[in-house]
Amino acid sequence: MRIELEKRANPSTLYSIVSPFLALALTVVAGGIMFALLGKDPGSALYSFFIEPLLDVWSLHEIAIKAAPLILIGAGLSVCYRSNNWNIGAEGQFIAGAIAGAIVPVVFHDWHSPLVLPLMLIFGIIGGALYAAIPAFLKAHMNTNEILTSLMLVYIAQLFLDWLVRGPWRSPDAYNFPVTRDFAPEAILPELIASGRANLGFALAIVAAVGLWIMMRYTLKGFEITVLGQSERAGRFAGFSSKRMIWFSMLLSGGLAGLAGIAEVSGTIGKLQPVISPGYGFTAIIVAFLGRLNPLGIIAAGLFLALTYVGGEAVQLTLSVSDKVTRVFQGLLLFFVLSCDTLIQYKIRLVFSRLGQSNEGGAH
Amino acid sequence: MLAVRSLTKLFGSFAACNGIDLDIKSGEIHALLGENGAGKSTLVKMLFGVLAPTSGQILWKGESVRIPSPGAARRIGIGMVFQHFSLFEALTVAENIALSLSPGISLSKVAEEASRLSHLYGLPLDPNAHVADLSVGERQRIEIVRALLQNPELIILDEPTSVLTPQEADRLFETLAKLKAEGRSVLYISHRLEEVQRICDRATVLRHGKVTGACDPRKETPASLARMMVGSDVASVSAAGTNTKGDVLLEAKHLTVPSRTPFAVALKNVCLKVRSGEVLAIAGVAGNGQGELFDALSGEYPVADPAAVSIRGKAAGNLGITARRLMGAGFVPEERHGHAAVTTLPLSDNLVLARSQSDRKTFLAGGLLGIIRQAVVRIASTRISEAMDVRKSGENPAAGSLSGGNLQKYIVGRELDRQPAVLIVNQPTWGVDAGAASRIRQALVDLAKSGSAVLVISQDLDEIFEVATEIAVISEGRLSDAYPAHDLTREKIGLLMGGMYGKTEGEVAHAH
Fold first, then answer.
1. A234 close to B353: Cβ distance less than 8 angstroms
2. Residue of B114, B144, B109, B140 whose CA lies nearest to B126
3. Which CATH number is associated with domain B2-230?
4. Residue A274 lies in domain
5. Interface test with A, best of B327, B364, B369 (most A CBs within 10 A)
6. Which of A190, B134, B442, B455 is deepest in the core (most CB within 10 A)?
7. Do B325 and A239 lie within an 8 Å CB cutoff?
8. Does the fold of domain B248-511 match that of domain B2-230?
């Protein structure tokens, strides 16, 4: 027996809607099996992973906090990926944005003004965009592979941040702990509503996602992105420049990742420390694909992936399983999303007979 | 020798071949005629074991056979020369041939046998030459020799002359005559009626996967064969005639472009002029710089020298395609899928693709990122579809869902709708059914009559004689002078195509 993939004449509309849900269902099933193998009751484990966080106000706030960077980065990445530029280094741009934005409250900590916060956000965007400009320049002018360069720059950013908080930016009053001084109150992103910790970052994320959706759906710029992503040659025929698109998409996704970075340190952490992200920049790649590279879908996908973070912490507490469970769930999810997407373009057929007969034909 | 009985191949619910009956006698050249998509390729792929039939029978010398693979086809005595060659450019002729034989035969023996066969059948070939250095015609000879080495009794040739000059084609026909004299059969696939009439003993015509006629092509007229292929009469194009010629609207002066990639052709000192009311057709065998010429004239790849290309008297060589469109030029590239159109996008988006800047005021509502007025674009798209009789499913389907002919009509119509002063078209009817082809050619002629300058790059001499007022020939990146169409014959064009610049002198001499 073998499995054949037969290309559909037209992409299936049914599966393009069903696929993410199918992937979710398969992830839950695989997760249940994993809990069973760990010797935990799958039912209660899945309950505390996926349901419990939705029942408390404080955990809903936690989901919003974790969804904000995922949506911001994921929406930027979706534009990038649609234009066929593969920025894998959002994690690094997130850190670069956090560092650049933190210049104001850390280096100029004596300066108090209502301008501090807006300046921080702008610096964050610029920092992320500049860091994404490195792979953009290398791709546009040196023809390097942006997947490799952007990924490698992540580790440079992480180590640079580590050096910064242990070295020049270390707080004088932190008893030698590797952290910067706490941000002043005017450098803190305000909370959204009174009931909990969720901050303005979530609102920024929703605004950015909706804005990008409008751009992709209704404007010539969005059209240019789609065309160049589908066929560089057709884009050239239309008078669009793929080089400029590299710059545009990398700077856009880098800028949004940088904004997410400064929003995270300003809104949630309140200072710089060696590790500021539980892998948001990488998880956002899953968010982008789970959301079908559509900014509105990404809002939903970002909320769901945020749930896996919060749920992962919950099962860690209630069932004392490893904190790697979250990563496993996210990995499973990406795996199933990408495999289920195959169903949009292909039909699966099981072939039971004629083993090996027509194999030879394929070689000619 | 070979008989096919009610052979059917289904792809999903679509019948690419539907109950085909075919008889090939020994020692005959049998033509398989049909338009693109008629099912010719599917049929021969089943005969050569590349595809498995859904139902029906193949009889080889009276016995029912199953051909599960090309290897099996070769063993029973069927050889095939594909339209697209499968050769390794970095290897020599002999090495390429050895690859298709069973292992363990020494290379020198292969080379010896190959050169013996190539002399026997008049296919001069140096077994030690590297494939990368050979012309398309020579590469085809490798494929033929490779097929002959298996000593086949039936040879299938898929569109063999589409890549050859008329002189190279003549040589191929001599080889085929020799094969026939030895009692071998040839199944000859083509849509060139003139050739089929010249060399084939019998013909089977396919349309929409069914046999629509079996005949002696010599007793038919091109019109009657075309009717069998198309199913209806094909409107003939009324030529541009002798309009009064106006100003030069498109000019290239000493246009020289180095090749961008190792496989591209460099343009060498190309000069041309197209006046208002003229259709200049550029003939040439595929791969002689047509694509590169289109790129340079359209501005997809601008050149450094502004004066090298001028549009309506203004220097445009260093300008991009958008600027040239704004100067009044329109462009239709050769490749429909992924160049002239994005197949996954609807037709209205594909209209924006070519005209977002030239029709900026109509199609865009302004704003920093340019909001597209979808409703206006759709109305324009419908207008184009109606003007060019584009048949489509639904109001605004994805470009990829249209047949080649209908998509090409839309792509040409998209430019004509603007009434461009200059239109540059590369292979206007490549892979397009006869009905759509005549419609497109008429539209090009009409555009010239209305005072525009039209440049047509084409490999199809029939097309060129139908539409052109002037003809030039491109060969190895050089362009010949342009001659009035009525002063040229196919033979003269063939000589120019073969290259008048030295490298292939032998072939030119042979033709005399």
1. yes
2. B114
3. 3.40.50.300
4. 61-291
5. B369
6. B455
7. yes
8. yes
Residue A239 lies in a domain: yes
Class of domain B248-511: alpha beta
Tens digit of pLDDT for each residue in A144-184?
A: 999 999 999 999 999 999 999 999 999 888 888 999 999 99
Answer for the pair B334, B424: CB distance below 8 angstroms, yes or no.
no
Cα dihedral B122, B159, B340, A83 sign: negative
- Put simply, whether A355 touches B (Cβ < 8 Å) is no
Q: Hey, which bits of B216-352 come out as E strands? A: 248-257, 267-275, 279-283, 309-311, 314-315, 329-332
Our CA-based measurement puts residue A81 at a distance from the nearest CA of chain B, in whole angstroms, of 17
The ipTM of this complex is: 0.83
Is the Cβ of B369 closer than 8 Å to some Cβ of chain A? yes
What are the boundaries of each domain within chain B? 2-230, 248-511
Residues of chain B falling short of pLDDT 70: 36-37, 232-236, 238-244, 498-512
Name the phi and psi angles at B256, rounded to 5: -125, 125
Residue A332 within a domain: no
- Asked if the C-beta of A364 comes within 8 angstroms of chain B's C-beta atoms, the answer is yes
Q: Which residue is associated with the tokens 């050089």? A: B478
Q: pLDDT digit string (tens) for A194-250? A: 888 889 999 999 999 999 999 999 999 999 999 999 999 999 999 999 999 999 999
Mutation pick from A219, A357, A364 vs chain B, by most beta carbons of B within 10 Å, is: A364
Structural contact between residues B444 and B458, judged by C-beta atoms closer than 8 angstroms? no
pLDDT tens digits along A291-316: 989 999 999 999 999 998 999 888 88
What is the crossing angle of helices B404-416 and B434-449, to 10°?
A: 10
Query: Do A236 and B70 lie within an 8 Å CB cutoff?
Result: no
Is A223 within 8 Å of B70 when comparing Cβ atoms? no
Q: Is residue A341 part of a domain?
A: no
Residue A41 belongs to some domain of the structure: no
Q: Which residues of B are less than 8 Å from A237 in CB distance?
A: 298, 300, 321, 331, 333, 339-340, 353-354
